[in-house]
Automatic annotation (TrEMBL):
Domain Beta-galactosidase C-terminal: 606-664
Pfam families, sorted: Glyco_hydro_42 (PF02449), Glyco_hydro_42C (PF08533), Glyco_hydro_42M (PF08532)
Keyword annotations of the record: Glycosidase, Hydrolase, Metal-binding, Zinc
Enzyme category, top tier: hydrolase
Record-given protein name: Beta-galactosidase
UniProt-listed GO biological process terms: galactose metabolic process
Ranges of residues in domain Glycoside hydrolase family 42 N-terminal: 8-381
């Protein structure tokens, strides 16, 4: 047993004589797992009533004969041309109201009965044919679900979804606040999908009725989930036990992955950061993916070994970065390290996307050498990390509804972006070396000492009470500006801001000031002054202690950060858009109280993480994200599993640039 290592392999793009060379190189790189058939729908169903498995048979048989594990896809990530020609209703209508013709991928209407029937049938037939093959370790449904459709079929599906949610038009009209602008609906068929032709102007985030658009986002997430469930059910007819998944896309705005989590047998995701200095962002995303299923390990289903090909500028991963980022994924809960792609496509949009094997098929490239070296390390590691969990005492709440509602809102500021606020607060915890579970607002919070809830714009269910319970038993709860503003229908609470969080935070907010990026209001925190931007709430304490104050404008001297005693713990309220130094200062006050630091919080960009194996073995990961070596004093005893070196507390450690240690303590 070991961490699966390999990735997306598309031998159907190549003559069979190339396959032999590929597997020879796979041997050299210790590649043991291949994802097959991701885009093979046309090959397996070349015409409406014709199924041809001859190519896929050879592909799967070759992988099995070569001793590889197979993650077998249903091939439905892109529909065939004949399907769009025979049934034009399967293609999407976009936000601007344009009916799309055949082309690209992610162009299937999720509400189309024809698409749902045929995609389910091809999944059923693939499962019937290959179920029981001992090489198959997982099923891969679809590919990177995303996008939205606004066609008549989706309009009808949306109305059915609304009937189930609200039951009556009176309930719907109340939730959507339709007395505004004479929008009261008197018949379900009057409801239109919110698009550029109906409720929107200046793009998808500018809508006259946030409640309508919010519900359409929820509906579209559920509609694509229904597509996934169709195929999963078809697979289960032939294979009741092999795990089924689909590849998620991390902090992807379009789908609420918390709605999907219970239906995935394990989480897998594709890691394509926007640049080559995204280590803190990736840490947050790994933590989010791990948190989808209550800490269960996930698969890193895709990453590039070198470059992507989907952006205007595609920076190359510097030497050591691919290895470092792969180990970072393992440190945060990955039980598989896979790539896209195993061999570079010869044509079309991904021919310049990074690959383990380039167009020349050489094994003496830097990229292949680094992949092979990582494969050897994972082989030496064996099963040490498999099934290991993260023992976090800090939770960070991540909520798609709050993300959507905040960024759809007309005011206070469209410059405040949910993801950036969350990143800043997670970054402060990451810098301190703290283990963090990134969880849904519905998660059990009883095991956490600290709960951080940045920009918790929407407050749903009994969350306010559960946060009070955290503080009452001695924990700390941290929240920020724009929190506690609206209920689950995106209607404002008829009470002082921050709504139901007011008692816990011990403040009320009378006014708020939004400015452009260039405007700075300094905030005094302890013996230092930091900057704040974009959003400044004017706070009136209702029992809370003032921790930080604004230094400029007519509200100079008023609270910007407060701490409220609640039971045996505290509620912290950050009313201003603090810079990273300010956010870190606040969270380190909280961490000080609970003594929740990693071993090296003073070393910039030296990441530490802990996983605990099922047998109780504690594994400490040290990851040097610096482009220079670092020297430090060991604050632990153990053995580095990558080198076999014994480490004793007090000895000097020298970590190379972008170096990694995995210490069994």
């Amino acid at each position: 047993m070991k961490v699966p290592f390999g990735g997306d392999y598309n031998p159907e793009q190549w003559p069979e004589d190339v396959w032999k060379d590929d597997y020879r190189l796979f041997d050299a790189a210790r590649i043991d797992t291949v994802t097959l058939g991701v885009f093979t729908w046309t090959l397996t169903q070349p015409a409406p009533d014709v199924y041809d498995f001859s190519t896929l048979d050879r592909v799967v048989a070759k992988a099995e004969a070569e001793g590889r594990n197979v993650c077998l896809a249903t091939g439905t990530g892109a529909h065939p041309a004949w399907l769009a020609r025979a049934h034009p209703e399967v293609t999407r209508v976009d936000f601007e109201g344009r009916k799309h013709r055949y082309g690209a991928r992610h162009n299937s209407c999720p509400s189309s009965p024809v698409f749902r029937r045929l995609s389910t049938e091809v999944a059923r037939r693939i499962a019937q044919r290959y179920a029981g093959n001992p090489a198959i370790v997982a099923w891969h449904v679809g590919n990177e679900y995303g996008g939205a459709c606004y066609c008549d079929l989706c309009a009808a599906g949306f109305r059915d979804w609304l009937r189930q949610r609200y039951e009556t038009l009176d309930g719907l009209n109340a939730a959507w606040y339709t007395t505004f602008w004479s929008h009261t609906f008197t018949d379900w068929d009057e409801i239109e999908p919110p698009s550029a032709l109906t409720e929107h102007w200046r793009g998808p985030d500018h809508t006259a009725f946030q409640g309508i658009t919010l519900d359409y986002l929820r509906f579209m997430s559920d509609a694509m989930l229904a597509n996934y469930l169709d195929e999963k059910a078809a697979i289960r007819e032939s294979d009741p036990t092999t795990p089924v998944t689909t590849n998620l896309m991390g902090m992807f705005r379009g789908i609420d992955y918390h709605r999907w989590a219970s239906h995935l047998d394990f989480v897998s995701w594709d890691n394509y950061p926007p640049d080559d200095t995204s280590q803190a962002r990736m840490a947050l995303t790994h933590d989010l993916m791990r948190g989808l299923k209550d800490g269960q390990p996930f698969w890193l289903m895709e990453q590039t070994p070198s470059v992507t090909a989907c952006r205007d500028v595609n920076p190359l991963k510097r030497p050591g970065v691919m290895r470092l980022w792969s180990w970072q994924a393992v440190a945060h809960g990955a039980d598989a390290v896979l790539f896209f792609q195993m061999r570079a496509s010869r044509g079309a949009s991904e021919k310049y996307h990074g690959a383990v094997i380039g167009h020349s098929g050489r094994s003496d490239t830097r990229v292949f050498g680094e992949v092979a070296a990582l494969g050897a390390e994972l082989e030496r590691l064996g099963a040490a990390t498999l099934g290991a969990r993260t023992p976090a005492r800090v939770a960070l709440l991540f909520d798609w509804d709050s993300w959507w509602a905040l960024e759809l809102s007309d005011g206070p500021s469209r410059l405040v972006r949910y993801q950036q606020v969350v990143l800043a607060y997670h970054r402060a915890l990451w810098d301190a070396g703290v283990g963090v579970d990134v969880v849904a607002v519905t998660a059990d919070l009883s095991r956490y000492d600290v709960v951080v809830a940045p920009a918790l714009h929407m407050l749903k269910g009994d969350l306010a009470r559960r946060l009070e319970e955290v503080a009452a038993r001695g924990g700390s709860v941290v929240t920020t500006f724009l929190s506690g503003r609206v209920d689950e229908d995106d209607n404002a609470f008829l009470m002082d801001v921050p709504g139901p969080l007011g008692a816990l935070m011990g403040v009320r907010v009378d006014e708020w000031d939004a400015r452009d990026q260039e405007f700075v209001n300094p905030v005094r925190l302890g013996d230092q002054t930091v900057e704040s931007r974009l959003l400044f709430e004017l706070v009136i304490p209702q029992g809370a202690e003032v921790v930080g104050t604004y230094q400029a404008d007519f509200y100079a001297g008023t609270p910007a950060v407060t701490r409220n005693a609640f039971g045996a713990g505290h509620g912290w309220y950050v009313a201003a858009g603090l810079d990273q130094a300010g956010v870190s200062w606040v969270l380190r006050q909280v961490l000080d109280r609970h003594e929740l630091y990693g071993p090296y919080p003073e070393v910039p960009d030296l990441e530490t993480a802990v996983r605990v194996a099922p047998d109780g073995t504690r594994l400490l990961f040290l990851l040097n994200h610096n482009a220079e070596p670092v020297s430090l004093t060991a604050r632990f005893d153990g053995v580095d599993l990558l080198t076999g070196t014994t480490v004793q507390s007090g000895q000097m450690l020298h970590m190379e640039a972008r170096g990694v240690m995995v210490v069994r303590q």
